[in-house]
Structure formats: C-alpha cells, structure tokens
Amino acid sequence: MDNGHDKPARHGQNERELTLTRKNALFAGHEVGAENWALLASLIANCKMCDVDPVSYLSDTLRALLDGHPRSRIDDLMLWNFAAASSRAA
C-alpha cells in the first residue's frame, strides 16, 4: 500500500475502511455515549458477519417500524431474517 512515504505502510496504517474497536468508544465523552457507540458498533459488526449492508438494514428496519410493523411479527425484522430475504431478492 502506498502511504506517500519511503517506508512501507505498517499493518492497518492509512486504511480507508472504518475500523470498529474499543478504543473508538473511549472518545465518546460520556458513559451513555459509549453505550450508544457500543450498540452501533455491535450492530455494524453483526451486519458484516451476515454480509448485509448496515445502512440498508437500518433504513429498512426503521422504515418498517415507522410504517407500523406488527409486534407479533417482530422476528421478521431480525438481522438473520433480513439477510435471508435480501439474498432471495438478489
């Protein structure tokens, strides 16, 4: 990877991809902020494990909730069901 220097880049240096680690939560500034960051980081990591785009999952799930998705079918909104539905649609 070209980092603009004569020396080769160290592992992870100058990567463009967002890396989610516990260190990032240290900059949340408040305990509630750190808890929110942990929730979001966990959601994104789970989306990556299921090979689902986090933005589309969040937007589709929030849209379904706003549109009055019935509580009796809340399991339909779980990530693993979203992954199965989106793979069938592709």
Automatic annotation (TrEMBL):
Q: Which InterPro entries match?
A: IS66_C, Transposase-related
Q: Which Pfam families match?
A: DDE_Tnp_IS66_C
Annotated Transposase IS66 C-terminal domain ranges read 42-78
Protein name in UniProt: Transposase
Q: What is the phylogenetic placement of the source species in the record?
A: Bacteria, Pseudomonadati, Pseudomonadota, Alphaproteobacteria, Rhodobacterales
